[in-house]
Amino acid sequence: MDGGAFSLREVLAAFQTCVTEEREVLLGPYLRGWRGLVRFLNGLGAIFSFISKDAVAKIQIMESYCGGERREEYRTLQSMVRYELSGGLVDLQRRSAHPDSGCRTVLRLHRALRWLQLFLEGLRTARQDASTSAICTDSYNASLAAYHPWVVRKAATVAFCALPSRDAFLEVMNVGGPDEAVEMLGDALPHIRDVYGITQELYAQHHLLDLP
Ligand code: 1PW
């Protein structure tokens, strides 16, 4: 995935390898998928680097856990939640002793993944002449926007206006022609939906969906 021609196909494939037979989510491929998404986002223009900056910061936090002393505990989302909750390593009310827990950091990426899922789904099913900005704005408003203050929502909406046309966008994915790109999305999206669904259920089970 690093170096060489960049294709969104490989990025989305990372999410495919996230889920184990026991339906656990592996953090390694999850973060690799995110790294690729960020690269893709940056390829869309400088205006998107402000959006990707926060995602990069969060990916880095998680990578340091995954490469750190307790890396075994951070192998899967499930082991991370178990480890951090049982060790009292998560701020549940307000950010204080553990402002950058893995649980709260992944929650932000998880919410953003929902946006990505809705956006790619919209892109896949839209008419050829549809506006990507509108698809992006609609999917953002239906997901991540609820968690952002006004000024971030405003800046994000301005950035979306710079998105290229649907065909140009599909081309940036570097998967082949528009038809191939649409087919690839059809293959990849169920896996992203799966990862999102497992994470959502895990977080709901442990009452972690509103972590500060
Ligand atoms: C073309 C579609 C691409 C989808 C890629 C998703 C990238 C999402 C990054 C959005 C970031 C907007 C600016 C940052 C806001 C942060 O305050 C917020 N972070 C996220 C990821 O929503 C909350 O993090 P915080 O402040 O609680 O640490």
Automatic annotation (TrEMBL):
Chief localisation class: membrane
GO annotation terms (biological process): negative regulation of interleukin-1 beta production
Pfam families: GLTP
One cellular component (GO) term of this entry: nuclear outer membrane
Membrane topology category: Peripheral membrane protein
Gene3D superfamilies (UniProt xref): Glycolipid transfer protein (1.10.3520.10)
Reactions the enzyme catalyzes: N-(9Z-octadecenoyl)-sphing-4-enine-1-phosphate(in) = N-(9Z-octadecenoyl)-sphing-4-enine-1-phosphate(out); N-(hexadecanoyl)-sphing-4-enine-1-phosphate(in) = N-(hexadecanoyl)-sphing-4-enine-1-phosphate(out)
Top-level taxon: Eukaryota
UniProt keyword terms in alphabetical order: Cell membrane, Cytoplasm, Endosome, Golgi apparatus, Lipid transport, Lipid-binding, Membrane, Nucleus, Transport
Chain ranges of the Glycolipid transfer protein domain: 27-174
Alphabetized GO MF terms: ceramide 1-phosphate binding; ceramide 1-phosphate transfer activity
Keyword Transport annotated: yes
Intracellular or extracellular location(s): Cell membrane; Cytoplasm, Cytosol; Endosome membrane; Golgi apparatus, trans-Golgi network membrane
Family as reported in the entry's similarity comment: Belongs to the GLTP family.
Record protein name field: Ceramide-1-phosphate transfer protein
Species: Pavo cristatus
